[in-house]
Structures are given as structure tokens and as C-alpha cells.
Amino acid sequence: MVATPIGNLSDASPRSIDVLKNVDVVACEDTRTTRTLLVRHGIAARTVALHEHNERRAAAALIEALREGKSVALVSDAGTPALSDPGAWLVAEAHRAGIRVSPVPGPSAAAAALSASGFAAPRFLFAGFLPATAAARRKALEALEAPWPVVIYEAPHRIAETLQDLKEKFGDSREILVARELTKKFEEVARLPLGEAAAWLAARTERSRGEFVLVLQPGAEVKRAALDPEKVLEVLLEAVAPSEAARLAAKITGAPKNLLYRKALKS
């Protein structure tokens, strides 16, 4: 599993180049894209295509090659393979076949954007690409309210709609980092309120092109409202026996079950 540059070819690590030079086969999402990297570093390895339309068929042939003692490097067009890109099926099949799997870490658009966001948090949520259709995308956003940064990948033809949906869901004042064409010649990184994101995008026509990574500002910590154990017990007693009411009230509120049971018997 070899991570490759997300734009700037100089980001390829010495180890990744050494691995690509010495394997028997390089499995890649698009052989033309990978060939550019290989030519840059004078690598003549054989390439085979492994993408979303042929992954299982290609994986079977690659597993057979691995069983014969061949070495295979898996790469995606950019960044870390099998992360919002094809490759996970091949890796899973290799594990099932008892074949050693080794990651060669390196560039990651998610990590790069997060590091440039300035949103401090002990963890982050990687959402990858949201659904393409508007209804499914808006539904997916319901699950992204979190007290830590949320990283989203987006294609240029959907970026305006996604920013609008984010604004409607999280409000004008919630901040977002918009990272466009990371590490490439026309890289742009802007952190701004969601209410200003549409105007930023429309300010220059070229901003509707390129690949995007979005980092949503962490939301507030959502705390469960304090519940009155006796009121919860009172409601439950209207529907179930005292012992069951006490058990459920204890589970809901965290209050001692025995205490609630004694109160239930007195009701």
C-alpha cells in the first residue's frame, strides 16, 4: 500500500520510490496517471489497472500473482490507497489469503487539510465523499454534527451545492476550511464562515474547478439533558409493572435501580 503525491510530485518519499522500483507489479487506479509519477522517477515497473469497475476481477489476478511469490504495490491516483479510493477489496483478500500487507505511509489530502485548518481537537471524523444526490447528501449531513472537525471530500461540479447544504444544516457562522488543489500550482486554502463560502467560491471562475477538501469546524459538545428519575418512573408506571419501570428508569437516567423500585412500590 503505497501513498503517492496528491499533486506535487516532489512529495513522493524516498521509501515509496524505492518500493515502486523494486516490485513486480504496480496496481493503480488509472495507469496513465501513475505512469506520470513512474516516468518522473525513472521507474519501469509493469502497471495493471485496479479501479471501481474491475476491482474484484483484478484483485483475483493479483492475489494469484502474490501466491506465486510476486510483489505488488497498490497505489491510487493521489494520496493513500483504499481511502475513498479502490483497493480495500484487494487488501482484504490478501489478509484472507495470509499474504503480508505493509503500508508505505505518505501524502493524505485529509491529513493535509486538517493540519491547515487550525481546528484543534483530540480526534476528527473522516466523512469522505458525501452522496451525489441532494436528498441523500442532506440526510448524510444529519450524522455529521460532532464536537470534532469533520473532513469531507468533494468534486468540483458539486462543491457549490455541498457548501449550500452545509450552510443550511450548520448555520452561517459555523466556520469551514475550503482547501482546493492541495499541493498543486493553483492551491488555495481559505477558512471562513459558511455564510461567506458561496461568495468566496463565486469570486473567481477557476474556483469551480479542481479537487476540494472541506474541514468543518467542530460543533458544541452535546450533553444529554438532565432527567428527573422520579418523573421518568412515574411515566413508565403508567405502562409497565413496578419492577420493569424501575429497571427502565434506572437505565435511562442512571439512578439506582433499587431506590427506584422502592419508590415504585409506594406509588
Largest sheet: 5 strands, mixed
Q: Looking at the structure, what is the overall shape?
A: extended
Question: Helical element count?
Answer: 11
What low-confidence regions span 5 or more consecutive residues with pLDDT below 50? none
Write down the Rg. Answer: 25 Å
Provide the succession of SSEs.
HEHEHEHHEHEHEEHEHHH
User: Could you give the count of β-strands?
Assistant: 8
Please state the structural category. Answer: alpha/beta
Question: Could you explain the architecture of this structure?
Answer:
The chain is an alpha/beta fold and 267 residues long. The protein has three domains: 9-96, Tetrapyrrole methylase, N-terminal domain (Cobalt-precorrin-4 Transmethylase, domain 1, 3-Layer(aba) Sandwich), CATH 3.40.1010.10; 109-216, Tetrapyrrole methylase, C-terminal domain (Methyltransferase, Cobalt-precorrin-4 Transmethylase, Domain 2, 2-Layer Sandwich), CATH 3.30.950; 229-266, no CATH class. Helices cover 41% and strands 15% of the residues. Helix 3 packs parallel to helix 4 and helix 10 packs across helix 11 (257-266).
